[in-house]
Amino acid sequence: MSYLQELEELLTKSVIPDLDERLDEIFEEIADNKEASEDAKDEIEELREFKADLQDVLDDIQSGDIEEDECKELIDDIKEAQKGDEEDFGFVEED
């Protein structure tokens, strides 16, 4: 399996579903409390932005606009973050 395929599978079968699950948890908490805390609003925004970034990566995979070495780097970052349970998966926030 190429790094391109591995990255696509990792994103579609693990990372994005995990993000969706966390978003669902937050929305359930909001529904239970009948209001959203500022922290919850911030987390929702961050998760949505991160998911959009991941979708951009998937789009790059589909269009062939990403190199194998870049895929490997992203895979390594994601796997390292999953070990440490980091929320940003090694991505650096752009200004």
List keywords for this structure.
95 residues, mainly alpha, 3 helices, 78% helix, elongated
On the 0-100 scale, what is the average pLDDT?
A: 88
Q: How helix-rich are the residues, as a percent range?
A: over 70%
The tally of helices reads 3
The SS-based structural class is: mainly alpha
Major sheet: size, sense and barrel closure? none
Number of domains: 1
Molecular shape = elongated
- Secondary-structure element order, N to C: HHH
| N-end to C-end Cα span | 34 Å
Strand percent estimate: under 5%
Q: Compute the gyration radius: what is it?
A: 15 Å
According to DSSP, the number of beta strands is 0
Low-pLDDT stretches: none
Describe the structure.
With 95 residues, this protein is mainly alpha-helical. It has one domain. Helix content is 78%, strand content 0%. The protein has three helices and no strands. The protein has helices at 3-33, 38-63, 68-84. Helix 1 packs antiparallel against helix 2 (38-63). The longest helix has 31 residues, at 3-33. It is elongated and about 45 Å long. It starts with a helix and ends in an 11-residue tail after the last helix. The relative contact order is 0.15. The model has no long low-confidence stretch (mean pLDDT 88).
